[in-house]
Amino acid sequence: MKLPFRTLWLLTAIAGLIPDHAGAVDIYSSSGPETSLDSMWASLGHLQSLTELSSTHINLERFHDDSSSRFWLSSLGAFGNTSVRNNHPAFHYSAAGGALGYDYSAGDPYSSGILGLSIGQVFGHQKIKEMPNHPDGSIEGDRFTQDSFMANLYGGLLFATGKKSYLITSMNFGFASTSNECKHPDTPDWDTWTYNTALSVTWRYQATKSFAIAPFVRLDYTHADNKQERNDSCWHDDGCNRWDNRGKFDNLALDVGLTLEHTATFSSGAIWTNSISGSFCPDIVRNNPHYTFEDNWWENDIHYKDIYNGSGYPASRQAYKGKVISRFISSRGFSVYLTYQIILRDSMTAHQAALGIAQSF
After folding, report:
1. Contact (CB, 8 A) for 72 and 348
2. In angstroms, what CA-CA distances link 239 with 6, 149, 189, 233?
3. What is the model's pTM?
4. Which of 117, 123, 139 is CA-nearest to residue 53?
5. Interatomic CA distance for residues 135 and 123, integer angstroms
6. Which of 61, 166, 203, 206 is most buried, taking the most CB atoms under 10 A from its CB?
């Protein structure tokens, strides 16, 4: 699928309402007119919906499955909302779509591995909420549609550490390209490229025949860029079109948590597993979405130029996650599953959900 990559400079609907550019920057520098930087948070939420879903397919039942191959198909949903923080305007986003994946498993019940690939696409929108504290008075926020195409490479290894315990390691590398189209006619469009890689280690202990506990730790890194296509004069030797970066975002987080799982086994050989997880997720290193903007204007035939730092939404650096997974696996390797995750920060909440089917063969 070829995604449209077009251009972004400023949300002119907001900037055009500010008569004195330099003064507005000084007064409202904590948010600035470039609220499009917040599209990085939404693109991250979209990508998380796929990477979190992929990670649920790395489980003990899959490691012990006699089938080497498995296909899965799922619906996806991602949505989130914020409140005003440090004078930065709030926003909310929502998107829905689908995903499919394939993974291959090899080994034995005591030592085995899984390697898989998933792709997905979601469609939605993001709305910048009204800014009541703007120095020029309340301003209605902008709205833009979003289309994300995503891919994720995932895998895991299983090692038996005792009769009732296992060590499970898993990893993923995901990418999302989000096309953002602003509804304001004078504002160009832009793309957000988001990368995510994570490594987790889980120790799973079978406390009883049907109940297991699994403490885990996960290291998660995210990088995002806002991209703009710039049309230069064709007199330049380097051509007419060039890609410019219009903002960056980096975050390294550590998740420490615990999973409780219950398994019901039926006489037919079918299995129904239900698990709940909770974790504390501080951000170790984070650069909020940011960009250094250059503002140019003319007054009385005099050209003025100002450079200032635009900043995206400054979400809290501490998060709490909760995740629920329910999976029914028939004796013939067909399964139906439901997953839901919530991420809670001080002024920001994100949700990811999925409902799907899988078949091993």
Report:
1. no
2. 16, 28, 21, 8
3. 0.83
4. 117
5. 34
6. 166
